[in-house]
Every structure is written in structure tokens, then in C-alpha cells.
Amino acid sequence: MITVQSVSKRYGDTVVVDGVDLALPPGGVTAIIGPNGAGKSTLLSMISRLLPMSQGRVLVDELDVAHADSQELARRLAILRQDNHLPLRLTVRDLVAFGRFPHSGGRLTRQDQEHIERAIAYLELQPLAGRYLDEMSGGQRQRAFVAMVLCQDTRYLLLDEPLNSLDMKHAVAMMRILRRAADELGKTVLIVLHDINFASAYADHIIAMRQGKVALQGPPETLVTTEALSDLYALPITVHQIGGQRVCVYYR
Amino acid sequence: MADAIAWSSRVRLALLGGLAAACCVAYLTLDARGQWDFVLPFRGGKLLAMVLVGYCVAVSSVLFQTITHNRILTPAIMGFDALYVLIQAAIVFGFGLSATGTHEPLWQFALEVAAMTGFACLLFRWLFTGATQSLHLMMLVGIVFGLLFRSLSSFAVRLIDPNEFLVLQDRMFASFNSVRVGLLPYAAVAALATTLAFWRMRRRYDVVGLGRDMAVNLGVDYRRTLIGTLAGVAVLVAVSTALVGPVTFLGLLAANLAYQTMASDRHAQTVPAAILWGIIFVVGGQTVLERILGLNTTVSVVIEFVGGLLFLILILRKGGRP
Fold this sequence. Notes:
The structure holds 2 protein chains of 2 kinds. Chain A is of the alpha/beta class. Chain A has 10 helices and 12 strands. Helices cover 77% and strands 0% of the residues of chain B. At the A-B interface, α2, β6 and α3 of A face α8 and α9 of B.
């Protein structure tokens, strides 16, 4: 259970996140959607202690993220930001192995090795495991980073726009993997998504943010509607039922 | 695959180690006339000092580049050693030179190192924990700081007694010929203590190299690691500057050659490789200049020239991107 209690972030006079209260249900996939500048990524960064908050409190299970031992938190919660350009020369396996750092402090045990191989297999990276990250495509690198946070073996998995720089095929593959991580491994997945159709197709719960506040939240059935989304994005969006999926059309 | 990489890096390290050892032996034995029991201790002292300088500069540069996430800035380029020279000048100005001149007391060295560590931490903690992360801005700040420190120390120098001025001026320019061998034991102890502190944090550095967000995600106490490392870097810079004076581009050379020679960027590989490159440059360069070419210039001139070229190439090639 992640509890967000009246969390705010201010830069000078600009309020980016404005008194957000949330109780994230354990298990399943939760998507945060909303227009640019709604404070989605900022909120995610504050939940994962990457960014100090100006006000409020975040509890991950019983741990207060502002004061809890960082290593203890790292075994509970993993976060992947969107801009992962590594200037380092590392192989995929090296990178995935870093996911074990909170558990073993850099000295890998046999159990760690098993976790590493499992994470590599989970993202179907076996053929690339010995390749250097700087020799791979953006999509492959993104998969390697997701393998790393999976390898961290945490209950909570936070991802900031994991579909960035992925083509349709890889975006679908990524969402399937995250869905499976929630269903098979019992993880609580919290993702910031720009593509509302992916949120509609894969999420159990959607949080819609606007101007630093939570505008709406609920399951896709109640939230993905023509009225709610048109209002949220200030854009005419029509929701259609196609093949049992709610699909948003807003291109013309 | 992984074994092959480990094997090839071991071979490379062994080759570098052999080269460094050959440089040391050549320095000790080449062109030695007269009594060995005079030559060896005399040259041995200087050799130890040079090895220590290579070591300190290499380790401090690699770790500094890790915590600042770039490959171009080094402590020397950011004006660390200019700061140390300023502190030396300020202490001479404040307390006067010790009577013996060459053998300065331990307290003075300790005071210099302590002041250096304190100031460097204050200054660079403010600089590197702030929001400004632009490489160009950092470089500019470093150049301005370096200039400021150098001008301040030459100002202090003008205010003091001419005799003290001569001694001090000698310390403001790098010289591997006039190594302050008397400082060697203290310097070695300081370097050893810092090394132990770094050794205890050694597993974190690979993680810190992944970037701040990733390191925090993986549970590293980022702020503490940053400040602890800055303090250690300051001590190592103080040690090497105290021994031979400021050498601006040695760290850049050693670190970047290490990145080039080793297959992976893990610190278990890059740090030893950088140390060996540092020793090869200082000892090997000095041997070639002093014994083979018979020149009286110090190797620092050559190191600055080659390192300066590399610095320009790096900036031009990477377009300043970190």
C-alpha cells in the first residue's frame, strides 16, 4: 500500500503538485494520465524519493520515504525514469546485475545470479545479455533497464513513461510484460502514461491529473468516457467500444 | 563471454603493470654512476614520491569524474590544486615559514590538508548538489575559481618576506626535480587513510556511475557518498600538490587513457588502470627526459602539453556533452 498524504511541490511561486492525497491499492497496474505539466512525473519522483517534497508525506507500506533507510526502501520500491542515457560502457548483464545491489551490496551470490538470469529471460534479452548498452537500439536499452528494476525484486514498480521511444510492437510487448509482472509476480505497478489507449487497455486503475491535482480516479470503465477525457485534456475525445476495448479517438 | 572480458582486462592490466614497473626500474638504474648505496636511496625517495603523485592524481580524477558524471572535468581543472596553493600561501603569510625550511613540521601539512578538505567540500558540494549541471558552466566556474585562487595566492605572495617568497614560488609551479621528500611519510599516511575510506565505499562507485536517480533507486545514500568522496579527493589533491606542486592535466590523461584501455567502465578495472597510467606518465616521462634525453626540463611541461591537447580534443569531439 502506497499512501500519499497532501503532497505538494513548489518551485518558488510555481506549484507543480498541489496537495495530492492518494491511496494506491496493492496489486495490479495503476496508470497516471493527464496533460503535459500536470505534475505526473513530479509526483512519481516524490513517491520514489528522487525529489524532495515541499509538503506532505508518502508512506510505502509503513515506511516514510523522506526518513526511511534508502536501502530498505530500495528492496521495497523500484523506479525507472524516462531519460536513461548511460554514458557508461556496460553489458546488459552488468546493468541487470545492479538490480541486486540493494540486496547484496554488490557482491553477487548464487541466488542473485538466478534473479539476474530470470529477469533477463523475462524480457527476452538472452541473445543480447553480453552486448554493450551503447551498441543497442533505444528500445532494447529500455528493455534492459526494465529488466534491471525487475531484478531489484521489489513489491512496487514505478515507471515514468516506459513507452517513450518504443515503436508499436515494442510498446505492446512492454505493456504485456508489465501486465504479467502484476498478474504472475504479484507486483504493484504504477506507470505514468501518455497514450491513454494503453492506459485504457492495460490498467486496472487510472489516476487522472490536471494542474497538480488529482482530477479523477477509478477503473477504466468509469474513467475512460467521452465526457471525462474531453474535459481532462480540453480536447474533443470520443471513446468507442471496439472488440471489447475502450478506444479513444482524438486525431481529427 | 564474461570470462573472456575478464581475461582480456586482466591481461591489459598486467601489461600496464609491467610497463609501470619497467619505468620504475629504468628510473632507478639507468645512467647511474657511483655508489649504489647512495644512488638507490636518493632516487628511491624521489621515485616513491612520483609513484604517490601518480596514484593520488589518478584515483582522485577517476572518482571525481564518477561523482560528477563527466569525463572531462578533473579536480585539477576545477581548481582544486590552485586552492591548495592558495592555502599554502595563506598559511605562510599567516604563520611564516618554519625555521628549517625544507622540513616543515607535521602540523603545517596537517593544517593545509584540513583547510583544503574543508574548503573544497563547502565549495564543490554547493556546486555539484545544485540544479546547475551544465558541463560548460562547470568548466567556466572551474576556470574562474582557478584564476581567482591563483591571483589571490600571488597577491599573498607579494605581501610576504622575499625569502619566504622564493620558497613559496617554488611550490607554486610543478616540479618533479625538487620533490619535497621530507613530506613523504605524512603524505603516504594521508593517501593510505583516504584509500581505506574509498575502499570501504568501493562497491558504491559503479552504482553512482549510473547517475543520481539510478543510484538513489538502488538505495545508495547519494549525498553522503558525494560529500565523502569530495573530501577524499581533496586530501589526495593536497598530497600530490604538496609533493610536487600543481599538475593540471595529468589526471585527465590518466583517467581517459584508462577508460580507453579497459573494456568495461567498472571501477575495479578503470581505477587500477588509471593508477598505472599515472605512474607510467610521471615516472616514465621523467626517466626519458632526465636520463635518456638529458634534458633539464621537468616532465610536467610535457604532461601539460599532451594533456592539454587531449583536453581540447575531448571538448571538440564530444561537443562538451557529459
